[in-house]
Amino acid sequence: MFRPQAPKAWVPLLVLLVAGGYCMSAEPLTDILPPEPTEPKPTISVSGGLVLPGGTFDVIADFQLDETVKLYKNKLKFRWPKLKGAKLKEIILPEPKLATDPLTKKEAPVYTKAAKIIARLIATGKKGDEILVSGSLEHQSCTDTICFLPATETFQFRLVTGLAGAVRTTSEPGAGSAALTPLDASGPGGDRSVLWQILFAFLIGVGLSYTPCVYPTIPIAAAIIGARKERGLVSALGASLLYVLGLSVVYALVGVAVAKAGGGVRDVLASPYVRVPISALFVFLAAVMFAGWNFALPSGYAARLQSKLAGGKGALRTFALGAVSALVVGPCVTAPLFGLLTYIADKASPLLGFWTLFAVGWGMGIPIILFGTASGLLPKAGPWMEWFKKLLGFVLLWAALYFLWPSVLSDKAYQVAFAALLVVGAVFLGGFHTLIKKSSLGGRLKNVLGVVAVLYAGFLAFSAMQPVTENVFKAATTRDVDQALASGKRFVIDFYTGDCPSCKTLDRDIFTRPEVLEAGKEVLTFKINAQQERPLAARYKIRGVPAVFFFGADGKKREDLSFVGGGISLEEFLKKLEEFKR
Question: CB–CB of 116/472 below 8 Å?
Answer without folding.
Answer: no
